[in-house]
Amino acid sequence: MSIGESHRALRDEVADQLRSWILDGTLEPGSRLGEGAISERMGVSRLPVREAFRRLEAEGLVQTAPRRGVRVAVFDQEELATIQEVRLALELIAVRKTAERRDSETMNELERVLLAGSQAAEAGDQSALKRLNGDFHELLAGGTGSRVLVALLRSVRNQAHHLVGGLVTSPEDSWSEHARVIRAVLDADAEMAALLMRRHLHDRHESQRATLTP
């Protein structure tokens, strides 16, 4: 079934698919995005494609230039450094607020993720660890109770992921650091959780910049 045959709002379906293609590298930085080609590929009219372009431009994943049309946002070292700085600030706000707010549903979910992650790490299940690493970030954002912060963090994570060309550390390495943050949050130690999150992101960002530097 094509996207055009689904029941969800077409602009959302198109935006989700384009975002996925950008983040997994199917659409590389600088790739031209023609309304006609995308609408034909997805089986939709041009209107939802145009609306999806606007949404992805607001997220920083595509760029529109006069007479040049729409293209996938191009990698830029200076912009990457700014995005990483913004992300660090937002992640620290989130982890502190979640540890202090102690929403019972979030705490229960973090305990579930911690247990599932330990089991996946022991079994060497990289696919499960990758999924649980994603759950970790979503839970810490959602645990703040702020829909604005959730949306901002999701957007800035996507931009950071795109600007490093999809470079990620091994799920197992990320999980071991995430697990320590979770334990600090469950212990209501907001400052330790923030310290561990800062160290985790700083190390990841330094590694990514070193890899990308010519």
From TrEMBL:
Domain HTH gntR-type: 8-75
Gene3D superfamilies: GntR ligand-binding domain-like, Winged helix-like DNA-binding domain superfamily/Winged helix DNA-binding domain
Protein origin, superkingdom: Bacteria
Record-linked InterPro entries: GntR_C, TF_FadR/GntR_C, Tscrpt_reg_HTH_GntR, WH-like_DNA-bd_sf, WH_DNA-bd_sf
Single GO term (MF): DNA-binding transcription factor activity
Keywords: DNA-binding, Transcription, Transcription regulation
Pfam families noted in UniProt: FCD (PF07729), GntR (PF00392)
SUPFAM superfamilies linked: GntR ligand-binding domain-like, Winged helix' DNA-binding domain
Protein name stated in the entry: GntR family transcriptional regulator
Biological classification of the source: Bacteria, Bacillati, Actinomycetota, Actinomycetes, Streptosporangiales
